[in-house]
Amino acid sequence: MDYDRFFHDKLGALKSEGRYRIFADLERKCGNFPTAVRHEDDTESDVTVWCSNDYLGMGQNKQVRDAMVAAIDSCGAGAGGTRNISGTNHYHVLLEQELASLHGKEAALLFTSGYVANMTALSTLGAQLPNCILYSDALNHNSMIEGIRHSRAEKRIFKHNDPEDLDRLLAADDPRAAKLVIFESVYSMDGDVAPIAEICDVADKHNAITFLDEVHAVGMYGPNGAGIAERDGVMDRVTIIQGTLGKAFGVIGGYIAASADVVDFIRSYGDGFIFTTALPPAVAAGALTSVRHVRETDALRERHQERSETLKRRLKEAGLPVMPSVCHIVPVLVGDPTLCKQASDLLLEQHRIYVQPINYPTVPRGTERLRLTPCPLHNDAMMDELVDALVDVWRTLSLKRAA
Ligand SMILES: *Cc1c(COP(=O)(O)O)cnc(C)c1O
């Protein structure tokens, strides 16, 4: 076995397909979001970031930062252990209570990331529920797919956002088997939204429980920012709601919220919860402050929606191929991996606008795109620059315009 050759060839394959990932080396500057300093070789330049998942700019919020600094000064840097062995800090407990209340559930459980929350909850449920069958939306995130795989339970893939297909699959299986339906509310690459009530109807009909990833919705939808299930008035119909503290809440960490027994079950049997060091107390303190602030600040959500609607309208007016998103995410279709990377490079080099290209396997081949995420802090001048820059790049590369 020529190991060096193997690694080199695998990387070469990605490069020749135009989907080798190059990270922009950014220095976020507190108070200047969405502007950041970009480092390249030995040079620095200011860029406007248009692809951040810090959807509401909470990563730089003064109250959040103050809470984190205060918690570092009072509790120190790390948690000092797993949750079971000395690592449970009071801030973890307060944050779990806050998250349970946000989602109208009896309890919540923290994980080190949203990825680990999905992976652990699903692998544990699928492995432990007797004769369990997992029903997964065709476009579910990798963290759910890995959790499902890890559980070794039987799985069925239902057509994306299609309750009828789900119904057909559920009806074909043993009525006595345990069943879990797994889906997202906002799908972050297309910006479409699940019919949560209809999926819950179908699940109820077949005595299945439900697991909903609201990672791209928490903080941003519903009167309290609890997500799409809250907006649609169906939070109580979903068995387990999963979310992240790393996107709209601007910090890091993931969680589930559910009944006291379901949460206690994952707490007691979930390896990815049990065998890892708890989040730093300062992270929990920052997230707690962020959740509380976002919960009571409707103006953030209103401005966020307005920015996103305005950007979609302006791009359409300029003849750019905005994909039909029904949420804050604004995908613009390129349809080729190499051109997508070139478009992103031109934006960065010539216009100091940073939008990472989104290529396979994150999206299907042929649907490569630029995924724009306007936030409340993108002002009109930044939007003017973005639209002009995109028009220029579309012309330079002769990219397809809107039909
Ligand atoms: C980002 C993401 C996750 C993982 O959340 P992290 O907190 O970033 O680990 C889970 N589900 C979906 C749909 C995501 O996009």
Portion of residues in helices? 40-55%
Taking the sheet with the most strands, its summary is: 7 strands, mixed
Class from helix and strand fractions: alpha/beta
Report how far apart the termini are. 51 Å
How many H/I helical runs? Answer: 15
Low-confidence parts: none
Radius of gyration: 22 Å
Shape from CA axes? globular
> How many beta-strand runs?
16
Write out the strand line-up for the largest beta sheet, numbering strands in chain order. Answer: 4-12-11-10-7-5-6
**Distinct compounds present:** pyridoxal-5'-phosphate
- Overall pLDDT, averaged? 97
Strand content: 15-25%
Q: In words, what does this structure look like?
A:
The strands form 4 sheets. A 7-stranded mixed sheet has the order 4-12-11-10-7-5-6, with helices on both faces. The longest helix has 20 residues, at 298-317. A hairpin with a 4-residue loop joins strand 8 and strand 9. It has helices at residues 3-16, 62-75, 83-87, 90-102, 114-128, 142-151, 163-172, 196-205, 228-231, 260-269, 271-274, 281-296, 298-317, 337-351, 380-396, and strands spanning 25-28, 35-40, 43-49, 107-111, 133-137, 154-158, 179-184, 186-187, 192-193, 209-213, 240-244, 254-258, 330-333, 353-354, 357-358, 369-372. The model has no long low-confidence stretch (mean pLDDT 97). The protein is built from 15 helices and 16 strands. It is 44% helix and 17% strand. It is an alpha/beta fold and 403 residues long. It is globular. The site of pyridoxal-5'-phosphate has 14 residues, from helix 5.
